[in-house]
């Protein structure tokens, strides 16, 4: 139901309910709640008259009454004789009237601010099943390995022994299975240098609250999906976007920008989100050298690495790391299933120890059941078999998308063929307004992610996911884009 | 493996490895790592000679060599001809040399600082199977419902349908099962007012980072197990302990201390940890009235509520809450199993929405497998059956513990009989030094939790858990305490 650019504050319920055509009384309820939440209507204030509300929302007075009755039952309102309807409670909302992250102040360092409402709208639109999802960075449910997942669970069930809290770094068997899996990528780490996390986002959360000082600089690819998250920003980090070329993030530009000790490089060498770029082998070595000489640690995010379509990618940067400069993130969310909530961090043991402490302080570890299921997937060979199948299907999807793009948008856009992952980064000709296209597409039932939510500057690109929608919808959606442009 | 007072920074590996008698070369490795981590030996610095290290640790030089070789393989050290052994890497550790929470500065508001090393030692000692665990707040593995857990998993496996990211508030079926379960306690909430979390600690983490302003005051029972956690403090909250009587926390004392708007009351009415106190019905109403009149929101922690032993406790405060002043926390960790990592928060929908957003930003939701298993436990009636069994066994354990206390410590201590939960709060006579008793007990293989880790002042109590150790160990452990006192 959710995309790769999650973890974003929702639009107000009110905006959303209007957008999604919720029942009218619900729209009114959400509107009233938000006036109270935001302190616009403090405790003791009187609501507009029922007649005025009815007029404002273009509904019958009975609809207004239904809404107010529900709000009264919630303890938020009270009808007082001769005084109309009064706000009687907002205790919790008094405590913090603004969301914890102030998106208006800091989303990037550039002059162009990512649009809050766009990110929010996309986030919720991604769970709208009536839309053609050219946006969602999640494997299609057609690719859910139902038989295998069932058999894994049943096996875990049959073999279950009593369990309780797991080891702070995660279930031992799972960590050993991860160590073996990483060894196939050339990453030689002991289970004690691995932390099991509930997905790569949690790893970023732990790193940002536990390893980085406030005001640290995070260098990252520009564009980057992290620009649409609040993970680093809410921990007080500054994001500093670095340009990319066809080989990935450009080391010289990091060198130029790297001033203080308190910096870290976050990068995404395999099938970068959103651009699909595959970082070449030389570039990987250059980044590692930079890390070594400039004491700039690297967070290497490899959640798409298993989803190569043509040939395996070069070895991870981590596989060449001899001095513990790289923290490596992986996950089953993209390649197998996000509902397991299983990912991992591999790095120097002292760092992993610290992250494990922090994980204990926030959630006492990941689900024992998920950890056991993940261990079974990895160690039984089922995961490798699943990958073979997924790659085959994703390749068909990618090729269909490329073909449809050529047919329908060949005159209006350009793109590179991605060698893996979920995304094609489509650059529209400069005379086409991306924000218009996004809006019109949404109105016509097609959801795309305009590039500006990933970048600090204006973008002529959108991110097209070929992983989620059925192939026929993929083609249909691209055709609709063509017709909208021709309009 | 872990207790109720978790989420605490570990002692240094070095201290711990010495304490636990790890192999000597491991002790040396941990020592060297920590010198580097803490910046005592910066990059480029030379280690003491092998001979000096051997002398310092009282080992052969070959043991030192083994340790240094392992550290060199980790990329931390390098032997340089004629220069000895040099530190060559500490990139990650440079970034933040102190742990994120500075325990030395702020653990309570009183004059007595909780001892860091005691909390840390206990935390790790709780996973030492050779000790008699009079400390651990976790159900004995004898009470793990193995057959039922297996059958639940197998059923979930057979009935599995494709899943992905769950709804931000958690799996719908689970939330509906929780709503029904809460209705039995008189808490009438809709599934949309419930957030599934990975245990009650995560709820506290989300509340403290998302609802409370920095510098807010958290009123809480004194003593409170929260004093041994860093959850609120690491989010910048001030803890303000309030005295208790036999009915629980004293409302008048909150009134006196309550100055600013930015305050919240955290309390634990059912079988309070660590004292076992059950809050009376009148007291519950008083607290709710206080919340209403003083606009002081309440976080009601009810993780032990299902574990009543004699008769069901009064209804939760939340069941009387008509104005959305109470956030109610529950969990399966204490009463069923902590490895599921499933708990919940019930409260005003607007607050739950906000917490759900925050949960998305930190981990994208809890495990789908655990959520499905929890839903099955709750809706099948298996959970209720399990509780009946657990209550019966816990009652036997409590009574055995009380009897042993009477027999062995009757002359040295006093206590109240707890009506539920896991703990007896044993108050030693004033001529007995609690810290001596704790240390000697540990040296003799018995782990108790001295009261001072839960309080801001000195305490003559210790927390005895009757939930974890086998009954014969429970009795044996108490007898050992007697012999230590008599010495």
TrEMBL record, chains A, B:
GO terms for molecular function: transaminase activity. The keyword Nucleotide-binding does not apply. Its cofactor is pyridoxal 5'-phosphate. SUPFAM superfamilies: PLP-dependent transferases (SSF53383), Winged helix' DNA-binding domain (SSF46785). InterPro entries: Aminotransferase_I/II_large, HTH_trans_reg/aminotransferase, PyrdxlP-dep_Trfase, PyrdxlP-dep_Trfase_major, PyrdxlP-dep_Trfase_small, Tscrpt_reg_HTH_GntR, WH-like_DNA-bd_sf, WH_DNA-bd_sf. It comes from the Bacteria. The keyword DNA-binding applies. This is PLP-dependent aminotransferase family protein.
């Amino acid at each position: 139901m959710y995309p790769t650019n999650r973890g974003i504050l929702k639009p107000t319920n009110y905006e959303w309910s209007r957008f999604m055509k919720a029942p009218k009384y619900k729209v009114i309820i959400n509107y009233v709640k938000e006036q109270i939440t935001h302190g616009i209507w403090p405790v003791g204030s009187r609501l507009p008259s029922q007649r005025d509300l009815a007029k404002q929302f273009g509904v019958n007075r009975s609809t207004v009454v239904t809404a107010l009755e529900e709000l009264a039952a919630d303890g938020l309102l009270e009808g007082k004789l001769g005084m109309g309807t009064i706000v009687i409670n907002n205790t919790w909302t008094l405590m913090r009237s603004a969301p914890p992250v102030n998106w208006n102040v800091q989303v990037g360092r550039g002059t162009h601010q990512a649009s809050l409402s766009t990110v929010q709208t996309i986030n919720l639109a991604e769970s709208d099943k009536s839309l053609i999802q050219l946006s969602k960075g999640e494997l299609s449910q057609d690719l859910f390995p139902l038989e295998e997942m069932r058999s894994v669970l049943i096996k875990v069930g049959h073999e279950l022994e009593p369990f309780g809290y797991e080891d702070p770094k995660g279930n031992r068997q799972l960590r050993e299975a991860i160590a073996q899996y990483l060894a196939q990528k050339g990453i030689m780490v002991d289970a004690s240098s691995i932390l099991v996390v509930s997905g790569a986002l949690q790893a970023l959360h732990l790193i940002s609250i536990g390893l980085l000082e406030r005001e640290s600089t995070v260098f990252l690819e520009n564009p980057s999906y992290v620009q649409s998250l609040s993970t680093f920003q809410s921990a007080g980090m500054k994001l500093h976007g670095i340009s990319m070329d066809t080989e990935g993030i450009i080391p010289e530009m990091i060198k130029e920008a790297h001033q203080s000790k308190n910096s870290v490089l976050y990068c995404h060498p395999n099938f970068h989100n959103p651009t699909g770029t595959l970082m070449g082998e030389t570039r990987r070595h250059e980044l590692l050298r930079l890390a070594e000489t400039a004491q700039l640690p690297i967070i290497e995010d490899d959640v798409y690495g298993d989803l190569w379509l043509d040939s395996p990618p070069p070895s991870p940067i981590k596989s060449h790391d001899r001095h513990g400069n790289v923290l490596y993130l992986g996950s089953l969310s993209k390649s197998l299933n996000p509902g397991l909530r299983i990912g991992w961090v591999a790095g120097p043991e002292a760092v992993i120890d610290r992250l494990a402490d922090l994980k204990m302080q926030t959630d006492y570890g990941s689900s024992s059941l998920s950890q056991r299921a993940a261990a079974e997937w990895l160690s039984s060979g089922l995961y490798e078999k699943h990958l073979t199948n997924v790659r085959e299907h994703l390749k068909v999807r990618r090729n269909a998308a490329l073909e449809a793009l050529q047919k329908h948008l060949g005159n209006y856009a350009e793109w590179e063929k991605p060698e893996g992952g979920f995304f094609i980064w489509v650059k529209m000709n400069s005379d086409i307004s991306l924000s218009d296209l996004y809006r019109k597409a949404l109105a016509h039932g097609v959801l795309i992610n305009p590039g500006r939510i990933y970048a600090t500057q204006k973008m002529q690109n959108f991110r097209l996911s070929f992983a989620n929608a059925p192939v026929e919808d993929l083609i249909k959606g691209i055709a609709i884009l063509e017709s909208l442009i021709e309009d």
